[in-house]
Amino acid sequence: MLSSKKAFDLVLPELGPYTMDYTANGRYMAMAGRKGHLAIIDTQSLKQIKEFQVRETVHDVTLFHNELYFAAAQKKYTYIYNNHGIELHCLKEHGAVQKLQFMRNHFLLATINKSGQLRYQDVTTGFMVSNFPTHLGPCDVMQVNPFNAVVGLGHLCGKVTMWNPISAVPLVKMQCHHASISAIAHHPGGNLMATAGSDGKIKLWDLRKFEVLKTYFHHAKTLDFSQNGLFAIGNGSRVQIWKDNGDQDYGRYMTHDIAKGYQVGEAKFQPFEDVLCLGHTMGISTILVPGSGEANFDAFVANPFETKKQRREKEIKSLLDKLPPETVMLNPTKIGTLKPARKKEQPSLKELEAEKEDAVVAVKLAPRKKKTKGRSKPSKMESKKQECIMKAKRPYLDQQMKEEESRKKLRVIEEVQLPKALARFASKKAALYQKNFPSEF
Prior knowledge:
Elements: E1 9-11, E2 18-22, E3 28-33, E4 37-42, E5 47-53, E6 58-63, E7 69-74, E8 78-82, E9 87-91, E10 97-103, E11 108-113, E12 117-122, E13 128-133, E14 141-144, E15 151-154, E16 159-163, E17 172-175, E18 181-186, E19 192-197, E20 201-206, E21 211-217, E22 222-225, E23 231-235, E24 238-244, E25 250-257, E26 264-269, E27 275-280, E28 283-288, H1 308-320, H2 349-365, H3 378-417, H4 426-436
Antiparallel strand pairs: 1-28, 2-3, 3-4, 4-5, 6-7, 7-8, 8-9, 10-11, 11-12, 12-13, 14-15, 15-16, 16-17, 18-19, 19-20, 20-21, 22-23, 23-24, 24-25, 26-27, 27-28
Helix pairs in contact: 2-3, 3-4
């Protein structure tokens, strides 16, 4: 059980609403105010590492693999800063970005701008991996599935699209609501997705079958799942936490009203802690949510108490284990499996003969029904048997006839179209013609 010191209120008037992002171990938090306030906070000691003002609109903020670097989507461009507030890079190619997401296993920064352009940039090499237009208008809802690193986008037309860095078209396009999508959240397991729309509905989706599991009539501006599956819903000045009662049937677990009617902008659970952080119009607030965080952490994956030496070693190991963009797919369990054997497009003559013989033998050995009124005479049975054999042979005979016709056309090309001087090159010329004009054969 956490102590009450973990809950705090940071009131910064005239600078909200606030957005925030945590590192993978939950040790540090980056926060950004809409009017230009940026800060990094140590969530264990509640000390401020760095605070500065960029004096322009900030749409979103995301931390990279550790607390040393973070990106801020500002009014015109996206900037990358270090933990001392020094500007390192200006990403002009991304345009006016609305949402940012960092894929820690791939070291990719995914952005979506106000014209609906999705971009992936490798932060280790600085190269632009991909640049795709969504063709669905402006977009300000983005969430990465923690299971397979697929980016989910929510659009104004009520559709949710899922993207990976190597496909110019969405992997999945779902019509989730009849109004614009206001929020998306993914369960840590990866098979459950929650969407909220302006039509006043929250839907839970099974991503294995892409079907609706539950529909709730509730307005939501922000959604988030905790490590243990608790579901936070923020709207207006009220935040509700729902709990799974079994079979994805979520019910109310806690309710919290923000003081003085501050409007919630974003709600996010802190990893490995029973804390829910709320970004509202007047700053940052945290509340205790018992049972939301994972109590048993793996220090080799994410260590909330890591030292500087451990952080440096982990950074080197994560760079060596960096996954290529091709590994982002809907079903990552396919990686490492064997490819199915490819069938030949055109089987050889011996294979066709063997298949035809097998089909004839199967017809001969098939059982026959005994019929009355003279229909089971030996002559009738033999004629019926021969008819079934011809039906089995018919596809192979048709294929042989087509091959004969193609050979005749090749002979015509060799004899008619080629002059005598090129007669010795007839076979090569005919093969080239067949390759370039397959529709004629």
